[in-house]
Amino acid sequence: MESDLSQFSTYPRQNDITPETLSFMSTIIAYALEQDHDIVLSALLKAAIKVKDDIPGEHSGVVGEFLQRVVDLVRHVGADTGSKFLQTTLESLLRKDLSAGGTGNTAPPDTHNTSPWLGLNISIGNDTMELALADILDCFWANRLHTKCHWCHQAFGENPPIRTICAGAEIRSSTRNIHVRIFNRHFTCLRSSGALIVPVSHVWNSSIREANRSKQYTAEAASTMIASIHTLFESSQGSYSPQVEFWHDYYSVPQWNKQIRQSLLLALPLIFHNANEILVQMSDITPHHVHELYEASLLPNISLYQCLKLIPPLRALCASEWMQRMWVTLEYCSSKSACIMDQSNRIWRSVEREEMFNRDTFSRLVDGSQRVLLSMFQYAARFSRELSTPGEFLGGLADRRGHFRQMCLGEAVELVARKQCQYFRDRFLAISIILQRDSIFSSSENVPTSDGDACAMVWKGAMQRGDFSPLLFHPCEKRRGAIPGGSTPS
What we know:
Elements: H1 2-5, H2 19-35, H3 39-54, H4 58-76, H5 79-99, E1 119-124, E2 127-132, H6 136-141, E3 162-167, E4 177-185, H7 187-193, E5 197-201, H8 206-214, H9 219-236, E6 245-247, H10 249-252, H11 258-274, E7 278-281, H12 287-297, H13 304-319, H14 321-324, H15 326-334, E8 338-341, E9 347-348, H16 361-376, H17 381-388, H18 409-417, H19 424-435, H20 451-464
Parallel strand pairs: 1-4, 5-6, 5-7, 7-8
Antiparallel strand pairs: 1-2, 3-4, 8-9
Helix pairs in contact: 2-3, 2-4, 3-4, 3-13, 4-5, 5-13, 8-9, 11-15, 12-13, 12-16, 15-19, 18-19, 19-20
C-alpha cells in the first residue's frame, strides 16, 4: 500500500481546518465528484464521512486522516490529484488484503501455457489426427472438421452443425499435444442426445479478432487458441463432470466460412438458451474481487465500514471488458443460469449442489452486489438509480427470481446502444433477440445484410407486437446537415 501511495507523500499535509470544516469540505468534494459522473468515488466519500461522524474510536480516527488527506490534495494540489488518491488508496488496500491471504479460498495454479504445447490431437468420430500449430486456424475456421451428425448419422444440409469439444483421453504422440474430442450434431439431435453442454461466454482476444478480420494465419492467434483450450480443460476438472462438452466460438464456429457463420449467428441465442447453464469467462476480474462480492451478497446487512472495501471490486466488475461488450450480454440474456470463471481461471461452481440457482454464481454475484449496495447508499439516490436503468450494468437482467424480465423496445435500444459492437447492423439483431426471447426457437429468417434492413426488421416486429413507438423515432443523419435517405426506416 505504501509503495502505491508514495507518489502522494511529496505533497505537504496542512491540517489547518476544524473537524466540522473537514466534514463540510469532504461533503462538497463528494457532490463535486457526483457532478463529474464519478458516482462510485462520490458514494465512497459520503460513506467515509458518515463513518467518521457516527462511529467513535479507532475507525473514526483513521477515516478522519483519510478525509484530511483528500481535502488537502484537492485544496492545495488539484481535484484530479485528489480523485487519483481516492482510487489508488482503495486499490492498494484491496491488494494488501489479498496478499494477507484473507479470502479463505484457494485459486487453482496459473494455467497460462505452463507446458510447451506444440499442437492438438483431434479425435472426431473414429478418426484421430495430429494438428500442428500452423494448421489450427485453417482446420477449425475453414470447416475442415465437417462430418455427418454424430447422433443421427445424417448430413446437415442447410442446418449448421452444432460443434462441441471435450477433453480427450491421453494418447501416444510424437509431440506434446493437447487431446481434443469433437462432436458435430444437429441442434435437435443435440437435445435428443442428452449431452451435457456448457456454452462459454467470453470476450475475444485481440489476436483472434485480427486473424478473423484478415482471414490470415498468425502464430499469436493459434497460440491463443492452444492456451485457451488448455486453460478451459484444466479449470473444468473438479468443477464439471468428465462427460461435459463445451461450445466455444473459437472452436465451434468456422469463422472463415461466411454461410455457416451467419447461420450460427441466428442459432446463438438458441444454443445458450438450451443449455442448463453457461460459463461466463471474465479474465480481468480477480478471485479476491469475486470472493468479496459473493460473500457480501449473502449478508442480510452490511456496515458502512465494510462497504468501503466492497466498492473497489464492484467498480472492477462494472468496468470489466465483459460488461462492455454487446454479444456476451445477449448470450447471458438468453441463458438460464451462469457460472463465473475469474482471472486465475477458477470456476466458481459446486458439483455437489444440484439446484439450478446454486450454480448461477454469476447472476447471484451481480444481483446480490447490486441489492446490497442499493440498501447501503440510500442517500446516494442517483448512484442507486443508475445501477438499475436499462442502459447501465445489465439492465436488470440478473434478476432471475420468478421469471425472465421482458424489456420493452426502448429499454432494449438503450441497453444495446451503450454496449460496444463492431458492426452497426448487429445491434438491431441483438435488439430483436432480446425482445423475442420467448420465441427464439421460431426464428428461421435470413440475417439482414444492411443496417437499414436490420432496422426495418426490428421496427416492423415491434409494431406487429402492438408497440408503435418506432413511429415516434426520427432518423438521424450520418453527418451534420445530411438528410436521411428515403430507405431509412422511421
